[in-house]
Amino acid sequence: MRKFVFGLLVLLVLAAFALLIVFFAFLRHWAAVHTGTLNESGPYYGFWSGFGSDIGEATLITAVGVGVYTGVRKVNCHTKGCWRIGHHPLEGTPYHLCRKHHPDVPTKGASHEHILEQHRKYMEAQ
Ligand SMILES: [Zn+2]
Questions:
Q1: Helices 2-22 & 24-35 angle (0-180, nearest 10)
Q2: pTM of the entire structure?
Q3: In this structure, are residues 75 and 97 in contact, taking their beta carbons and an 8 Å threshold?
Q4: Contact partners, residue 78, CB within 8 Å, separation at least 6
Q5: What percent of the chain has pLDDT over 70?
Q6: How far apart are the C-alpha atoms of 67 and 52, rounded to whole Å?
Q7: How far, in Å, is the centroid of ligand 1 from the Cα of 96?
Q8: What is the pLDDT of residues 60-114, one digit of tens each?
Q9: d(CA 118, CA 24)
Q10: CA of 75 relative to ligand 1 center, distance in Å
Q11: At a CB cut-off of 8 Å and minimum separation 6, what does 93 contact?
Q12: How far is the CA of 80 from the centre of ligand 1 (A)?
């Protein structure tokens, strides 16, 4: 079954490639019309005034997207698949975890007494 599907895919790719070769002039003309590089006052005037002017915007959007992605990857919880912000370093490891995945951070919020008890234990351990 896999060989049949693979063979069918190869045949489809070859057919698409043959159609591309046969209709190359038509496709070239279609691309020229839709990118604005045909019948303008000068070569590529229509491209840079229309379709090509979006290249700068696409570059900016891509740069912002990469920056946001990198920032999210750096600050989020190191547990795989968790998108919470990893505020709490796990001692003895290089990982930062969210309060849901960190073993020592209470998930429902810490009371003042709990915080003072943790501090007291820390001071006694010193
Ligand atoms: Zn997490």
A1: 70
A2: 0.46
A3: no
A4: 86, 95, 96, 97
A5: 98
A6: 24
A7: 9
A8: 999 999 999 998 888 999 999 998 999 999 999 999 999 999 998 888 888 899 8
A9: 73
A10: 11
A11: none
A12: 8
